[in-house]
Hints:
Radius of gyration: 16 Å
Order of helices and strands: HEHEHEEHHEHEE
Shape: globular
Strand order of the largest sheet: 3-2-1-4-5-7-6
Structural class: alpha/beta
Number of strands: 7
Amino acid sequence: FAVSADVLTPRPDSETAIEAVLDHFPDRAAKLRLLDLGTGSGCLLLTLLAERPAATGMGIDKSPAALAMARANAQALGLAERSQIWAGDWSQMGWSDGLAPFDVVVANPPYIPSADIAGLEPEVRQYEPRLALDGGPDGLDAYRLLVEGVRALLKPGGLAVFEVGVGQAGPVELLLRRQGFTILPARQDLAGIPRCVLAAPP
């Protein structure tokens, strides 16, 4: 994946989300419809499309520079025909209007509490886009905005996968429960930290 200062550099943490989706839908021939919210470089969406060759998907981001990077990666990886990269801002009313239901919604939203950003490693603090890091006072602002919209975007039998920060799995699961989701076992990253929250729609 090509990256720039406008998108997060893909990290092993996010492989946990990929593995969760592939394990839940093991059939390589499944004609899945995928949605990646805050797509950035497109790494989640495009990796899933590469692993599931009958799938199609959409990546949404509000950053024009990120959208350009995701489109370039889709083209370079031969996945442009099965992917749509669209502008969208989940903080705005009606952001999901007109989107058909999906089998999978995956998101790696900003989840670092605002006050913690100054203490991050220099390679993150200085070179990663703050838009993709800053999750508000408790790191959960994006999840509060997303959970209601995601419910309407998932087909019956679908799956929502949210990457979360350290200690955030429980609070994010609670937000999803309040929307009627069924919570599935969280997935741990390579360090044994609960890194992905999984939920099925009501």
